[in-house]
Amino acid sequence: MENYLIIIFILFLGVMYFIYSGLINKKNEVLEAISGIDVQFQRRADVIPNLLKLASKYMSHEKNLFSEIVELRNSSVSKYDNANPEQVKEHINVENKLTDSLGTLRMSFENYPELKSDGPIENAMSELAEIEANISAARRFYNDNVTNLNNAVETFPSSVLATSLKIKQYPYFETTEENRRPIDVSDYI
Fold first, then answer.
1. Distance of alpha carbon 65 from alpha carbon 35, whole angstroms
2. 178 neighbors 39 (Cβ within 8 angstroms)
3. DSSP string covering the chain
4. Of 95, 155, 170, 186, which is most buried with the most CB atoms under 10 A?
């Protein structure tokens, strides 16, 4: 009888360790994914000042948009605790606003044919488009990892261990309400 109790205890410890290591692994995958996104955000933040300097030669009346982009860019590169889901959520909101503002800037470029033909601006816009594609892929990777972690945090028995370890759910990267609205083609014609 005593041997059975020892075996059951060892099995219990094994299961708990398996659950514990799974939670830690999932949390670390989320942290790795958010770091990957931050690398792409930093690349984007490095391109923005050059792009704005080049564009300002042609678009002096867009100063408000430029100021907004600079302010959001500065907020996006400020430090935050990526282990704190609330700070991650705030960071996501700033990055979404910056993405929207850069979209507005791209649309403004459409009104200036001389900008499209300017080599340095064309190169900067091309680099920005590549970075945005990388950000999109990094967001998908992050959201996949968040799903795995959030599922583990919510389901029994790992939820009990997650609570005791203070492992919390993370927010998803989601598009903004503005981007969810239908596109009216007449705005662009």
1. 28
2. no
3. -HHHHHHHHHHHHHHHHHHHHHHHHHHHHHHHHHHHHHHHHHHHHHHHHHHHHHHHTT-GGGHHHHHHHHHHHHHHTS---TT-HHHHHHHHHHHHHHHHHHHHHHHHHHT-HHHHT-HHHHHHHHHHHHHHHHHHHHHHHHHHHHHHHHHHHHSTTHHHHHHHHT----PPP---HHHHSPP-GGGG-
4. 170
Gap between the Cα atoms of 22 and 27, Å rounded: 9
Amino acid at 118: D
Closest CA to 67 of 40, 85, 49: 49
- Residues above pLDDT 70, as percent of the chain: 86
Residue 185 reports pLDDT greater than 60: no
Beta-carbon contacts of 149 under 8 Å, excluding residues fewer than 6 positions away, are 23, 26, 27, 29, 30, 167, 169, 170
What pLDDT does residue 106 have?
Answer: 81
Cα–Cα distance between 65 and 3 in angstroms, integer?
Answer: 73
Q: Cα–Cα distance between 146 and 173 in angstroms, integer? A: 9
What tens digit of pLDDT does each residue of 68-78 get?
898 999 998 88
Can you tell me the distance from the alpha carbon of 96 to that of 26, in angstroms, rounded to the nearest whole number? 25
